[in-house]
Each structure stands twice: as C-alpha cells, then as structure tokens.
Amino acid sequence: MKNEALFSMLTQEDRKFLKNHMEQRTYKKGEIIFTPLDQCNHLSIILDGEVKLCKYSADGQEQILSFLGVGDVFGEAIVFQGDPYVVTVIAERETTVQMIHRDVLLTLTQRNENFTLAFFQEFTKKIKLLNNKIEMLSLKNIKQKIARYLLNLSKEQRSSTIRLPYSKQKIAFLLGTSREVLSRNFSEMEREGYIQSKGRNIFLLNILKLESIGIE
Predict the structure, then answer these.
(1) For residue 196, which of 145, 165, 161, 156 has the smallest C-alpha distance?
(2) How far out from the chain centre does Cα 130 lie?
(3) What integer pLDDT is reported at residue 35 of this predicted model?
(4) How large is the average pLDDT for residues 16-40?
(5) What are the C-alpha distances in Å from 190 to residues 2, 113, 171, 196, 202?
(6) Per DSSP, which regions of the chain are E strands?
(7) Range of weakest confidence among 89-103, 137-151, 175-189
(8) Taking CA 64 as the corner, what is the angle to CA 63 and CA 66, rounded to the nearest 5 degrees?
C-alpha cells in the first residue's frame, strides 16, 4: 500500500483487514488491464511499474490522457457506482497492481472517518488534474499547451524550478504532438527567455510571461 496520503490513515486493525481482502495482479508490458467494456468494481493502486490511460477515436486514433506510476490510484471516481471504465488502462512496462473491491472500501469508510476524508481528497485531486488536462487540450497551439503544462507542474511542485516527471516523448504524447515539435518549442521558449532547461530540470524564469502565453 504505497499511497501514503490515503493508507496512512488506516489503523493496524484496518491494515490487517485490508491485507486479507485485496487482490494483487502483475501485467506484462503492453498488456491491457481494463477497457471501457469492463465494469469498475475495484480501486486499483500501482505497486510497481507504470500504466497509461488513453482513449481511442472511432478511426483508432489514440489520445493519451495520463501516465500513472508507483503509489498512484485509478478507479476511485466510479468504483462505488460500478460504472464501466471511461478509459483504457495499459501497462507501460511490467506492472503490479493491488485491487480493493468496493465492498472492502465501503467497510473501511464506515469504520474509519479519516480514511473516508483521505479517499475523497484523492478523488478531488484527480478531478483537478482532469480539469487541468481539459483546459490544456483546449488551447490553440503547442506553445500555449507547454506553458500551461509547466505552470501546472509548478503549482503541483510548489516551485519555479520544476522537474519533468516524464521523458519528452511521453510529454509529447500527453500534449498531442510529436517529440520533434515539442523540443523545437522548448528551444524557442528558452531563446525567448521564458524558461531555462537542464535535463529534466526546468527553471521558470518569468511566470507572468508564461501565463501571458495562454491569453495571446
């Protein structure tokens, strides 16, 4: 149970109960974990590895919505309703997932108010991330999307010096562009004095100028 914000609220008795009532599965790289044809009956926690959440258009075009890593959860928004997944979940590399059935979650929420609060805080955080993603994708050009992405990371990391959580290839997937276009725009933004980059570390040199990109 590596999501400390969520599971640190459990008592020793709760942890023992959960350990006895959870499943653990391992998936190979590229293996589909869930699709929109599957009903969501579990809260899933990534114990090891990484997954991508994506949607497919009628003509088979893939839109990657997010990458999730160790400690991240998915299914929290729909597990109590038992609705189908709204995305396809695919293992990016060999990945181990712990799954908690909704009945077990209900028992924990009934016996531990702190866990209930932490669960809904996790849910609220995911909603905010989704809203940021929708806002970012609605922007007109790639430079605006990059600026919004970096500003969102700055808020999450609470610093004007941020570390990119993914490779530029994966960030390009998230922003709906190619790695070449992404790298070219990063270089342009460096020349124009918006940012300075050193590997995965990005220094936001002028927050106001970055914010102004989104309203040009």
Answers:
(1) 161
(2) 9
(3) 96
(4) 95
(5) 37, 48, 17, 5, 10
(6) 22-27, 32-34, 42-48, 51-56, 62-68, 73-74, 88-91, 95-101, 161-163, 195-198, 201-204
(7) 137-151
(8) 150
147-161 per-residue burial string, b: 16 or more CB within 10 A, e: under 16: bbbbbbbbeeeeeee
Distance from C-alpha of 136 to C-alpha of 203, rounded to nearest angstrom: 20
User: pLDDT digit string (tens) for 35-72?
Assistant: 999 999 999 999 999 999 999 988 888 888 889 999 89
With a CB cutoff of 8 Å and minimum separation 6, the contacts of 38 are: 84, 85
The reported pTM is 0.77
Helix, coil or strand: residue 139 = coil
Q: In whole angstroms, give the CA distance from residue 173 to residue 194.
A: 22
